[in-house]
Amino acid sequence: MVISPNETSSIIEASGINSLRTNFDWYPFYPGKCPPSYYIILQGICAPLIIIISTVLNSLIAVVLLQKHLRSATNILLLAIALYDTLTGLFPFPACIYVFTFKNCNDYWPYNYGWFHRVNYEVLPFIFHTCSIWVTVVLAIQRYIYVCHSGKAKHWCTVRMALKAIACVNLLALIVAVPMFLEGSFHPITVRSLLDSTKTFEACIVRDYSKDPRFSTLYSVYSVLRALLINVGPCTILVILNAILVHRMKAAKQNRARLMRKRSHEARAQEQTSVTLMLVIVVTIFLIVEVPMALHLIITGLLQLLKSNFLSGFLNFSVQLLNFAVLLSYPINFFIYCRMSRAFRDAFTELLCPSKIQNRQDRLPSTALRLINKQYNNDDNYNHLECNNNNNTHIETRNSIIKIQPSSTVIFNHRADEAHISLTPSLNSIDIQHNGTKNSPDSTMKQHVLFRDDKITSKNKRLNNL
C-alpha cells in the first residue's frame, strides 16, 4: 500500500507543514517503495557479509602490527588504513541490516531514526573513507621519499611524523564533512502506519537544502570540489608516485648485481624492493576502485550544476556497484600482506602457533652453519681461519665435530627504520683446525652443532617494516 498524493497533502497540512513537493521529502525512500532488487542484494546480503569478513581480517592486521617489534612509520600507516577501512564498514552495518536485510522500507521511518541513519550510513563512512584515502597517499609519499630521497628518510619517515600526518588527515576529513551535517534538516510528522491503519506515530521527513533552488548551485559546487579533493586529487598523486616507484624498482633490479657486492647488502636491497612492491600493489588496488568513483562524482556534480537528469538512472545504478567494489577491496590487503611480507607471516604465525616459529628459530643455526661451510669448503685456501674480536666466539672443528659458541645476539639494526636478521651467527673469533685433513662434503653433512644461548625470541626482534 502506497499513500496517495492527496492523502500525503492532508497529512502534511494537519501537521502544519505547507508543501512536501517543494521543500520536503521522505527520508531516504518514499514510504512503501523499497529500493530495486539489485540494491537489496548488494546492500542487504552481500555488504553485511563483506563487512564481517573485512572486520575480522583487519582486526588480525591490527593485532599483528601492534606488536612492538613491528612498530615503524610504514606499519603505523598500514595500521591506520586497516582501522579506517574497518570503521567505514562497521558504521553503516546496522542501517544495512535494518533497512535492506529486513526490508524495513515498506512503512514510514520513525523520526528518531532519521539522524541516526544520516550520520551512520552517510556522514561517518564518508569521514573514515576520506581518512583512508589520504593515509594511503601519505604512505605512497613516504615510500617515495624512502626510495628516491633516502637521505631525508631519517627525518620524514619516522613514527612521529606518521602520527602527525594521521592527525592532519583526520582534521581534513572533519572539515570536508561539515557541510554534510548542514545539508538537510529533519522534521517529525504524525502519520498513520501503512501496515496497521490503527497505529499512528511520528515519521521523519527531511528538508534537503541541496535541492532548494537557493542553495542547489552552492551544493553542486561543493560536490565537485569534494570530488576533486577526496577522489581525483589523491588518485592523481597516487598514479604519479606509483609510476615513479615502479620505474625505480625496475632500475634497482637491473643494477643490483652491479652495485651490491656483498650478500648482506643484496638481501637488504631485495627486502626493501619487496616492501615497495607490496605497497605498490596495495595502492594499485586502491586506484582500481577509486578512479571510477572519482569519475562518477565529477559527472554527477557537473550534471547537478547543469540541472540535467541525463544518465540519472545509470548513475544511480553504477554508484551502488562502485560502493560495493570499494567495500570489497577492504579485505584484500590482509592477503597481500600474508603473500608478500615474511615478517607479517611470521608475526601472524607466532600469534596463532608459536611452536612453529620456535622450531624455525631452532633450525636457524644449522642453516647458518651450512652457509659458512659451503663458503669455506669451496676454497682450498681456507685451512686455517682466525678472526679475533671482543666477544670471543669460537668455531672448533675436530674429527668432523663442530662446536659453536656464539655471541648473545644474531640480530643487527642497520637503520632506525629497518632491521635484518643475519643469516649467519656473529663470529667474533673463529678457529678451525683439521687435524691434518680437509673436510669432505660427506663429513660436512655429519657435523654436529652445539649452541649456547642460541635461541632468538620475539622480544629481541626488531623488524620495523613489513
From TrEMBL:
Main location: membrane
Organism of derivation: Rotaria socialis
Keyword check for rRNA processing: no
Residue ranges crossing the lipid bilayer per the database entry: 38-65, 77-101, 121-141, 162-182, 224-246, 275-299, 319-338
Cellular localization per UniProt: Membrane
GO MF annotations, alphabetized: G protein-coupled peptide receptor activity
InterPro entries noted in UniProt: 7TM_GPCR_serpentine_rcpt_Srw (IPR019427), GPCR1-related_rcpt (IPR053071), GPCR_Rhodpsn (IPR000276), GPCR_Rhodpsn_7TM (IPR017452)
SUPFAM superfamilies, per the entry: Family A G protein-coupled receptor-like
Domain G-protein coupled receptors family 1 profile: 57-337
Protein name: G-protein coupled receptors family 1 profile domain-containing protein
